[in-house]
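Um, can you check?
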Amino acid sequence: MVCGGFTCSKHALSALNILYVMVSLLVIGVAAWGKWFGLVSSFQVVGGMIGVGSFLFVVALVGLIGAVKHHQVLLFFYMIVLFLVFVVQISVSCACLAINEDQQGQLLEVGWNNSESMQRDVEKTLDCCGFSSVDYNRTCDAACSRDLLCSPCKTKIEEHAEEVLRFVGGVGLFFSFTEILGVWLTHRYRNERDPRANPSAFL
């Protein structure tokens, strides 16, 4: 059978969903690893990563079961959810790539003020204190605070933020194209007749 038929579509869709399962387990594993080794103490960050990983795992599992069994209902819901994820992801990815320095600074400050646990993580990791100014009267987990030689975290965060945004935007764009490929494959596969099925089942 030439590639592009029922069997090829089935294997391609199954392989794509196996990739999504692996990515979801990687996201969950990284979050758990970061929490276990104390690299991330923010429950919101860890919970958010585990939530995203779990959602992707469930979606991929639905797609994989639908592909293996050629289940019309599962494939339909999988296709709709995957398309919605594609819309959200490509919007976020484009926003990450298009953000300017002023907007980036405002977002960093909002994120800094919203989580004290994240502040401690950043101060410990980047060896800095405070966001835009150093205040030695408050508790700081950075090693430099013992010698009173700390610099504000804003400058150090901004050095990495642009690279991170570009990386996240690029990876997001790449995966958004795999998602639209998944939507196309699912639509094609749903409308193909299983050559091993009983012809009377389609009447």
User: Anything to note?
Assistant: Residues 86 and 184 are 12 Å apart (CA to CA). The chain has one domain: 6-194.
